Amino acid sequence: MDAAFARTVWQVLEPLHAVTYFAPESREANRAAGLRGFWMGYFASRAAPLGAVTAGVVEAAFFNFHPAMVRRAIPDAWGFAAPEAVLRARAGAATAALRRTAPSAADAAAGSVPSLERVIAAADGAGRPLFAANRALPTPEDPVGALWQAVTALREHRGDGHVAVLTAEGLDGCEAHVLLAACEGVPAAILRNNRGWSEEDWQAAAHRLTARRLLESSGHPTGEGRGLRAHIEARTDALAVRPYRALAATEAAQLIGLLRLPADQVLASGAIPFPNPMGLPARRARTRRTL
Predict the structure, then answer these.
(1) Which of 22, 78, 113, 208 could disulfide-pair with 52, CB 3.0 to 4.6 Å?
(2) Rg (Cα) of the chain, in Å, rounded?
(3) What is the biggest distance separating any 2 CA atoms in the chain, rounded to whole angstroms?
(4) Which segments of the chain does DSSP mark as H helices, in order?
């Protein structure tokens, strides 16, 4: 099983996970739990598996947000809703959102959750705080809830590995986004607005990348910049694919087949905006890249 499989599986896991950010069920659940505003809901619900952690822990684990953006939500969120209450809210809301946006999710769960759980059990949690915290959560009794929790754990496994690669290459959170925008064409304003970086922060990061000969003075990537970006993605894929080797090749192919339909249904529902700060490509781009 090669690293390309990791990219394919990410493209089917990420839409299933991401309903927790964008679906109205999740926003309403966070509000009902006592959390104030979208971003407090985001930070609290994603960080809740870690417990009532400080802002510094969230800044480190999430990596690419401006510290001030995190600190507007954490630790205040825990005064409005304890992590245990947030976990209950996010699980119930994500399950409801997945059932609504992906009618095939229940059937997919029956065949895919056992394989996903084998992959999760085979994964190394060392240096992966968000993955390890999600793996330690109890499995929901609802099969669609179990599916969402499993894909969330594996999504965070990939994300933790991605952060490790970025830091190993000497990139900070803002620089990583500037390089992404330059190489992949993601609108800079979307990344700045959704990660809390100012235009001044962005320009300073671009200057640092220019000094490293990763960007031209025009802001376009150099050959070295494109090479580094490709290396980061390839290394992320190589780290992410390891636990999937617990599956036979036929089982891995079957897993993709089971999850592709509900993932496409989520995308077709309009629940996830495009472009988005996660870097998830639109349906047409996904089809071209995974053929």
Answers:
(1) 78
(2) 18
(3) 55
(4) 3-22, 24-33, 38-47, 55-62, 67-71, 77-80, 83-101, 105-122, 129-135, 143-168, 173-184, 188-195, 199-211, 223-241, 249-268, 283-290
Buried b (16+ CB within 10 A) or exposed e, 166-195: beebebebbbbbbbbbbbeebebeebbebb
> pTM for this one?
0.94
Rounded CA separation 191/283 (Å): 20
Q: Helix 38-47 vs helix 83-101: angle between axes, to the nearest 10 degrees?
A: 100
Written as six digits, the tokens of 206 are 């671009």
Hey, what are 78's tokens? 């825990």
pLDDT in tens, 1-55: 788 899 999 999 999 999 999 999 999 999 999 999 999 999 999 999 999 999 9
Residue 200 buriedness (CB in 10 A; 0-12 / 13-18 / 19+): exposed
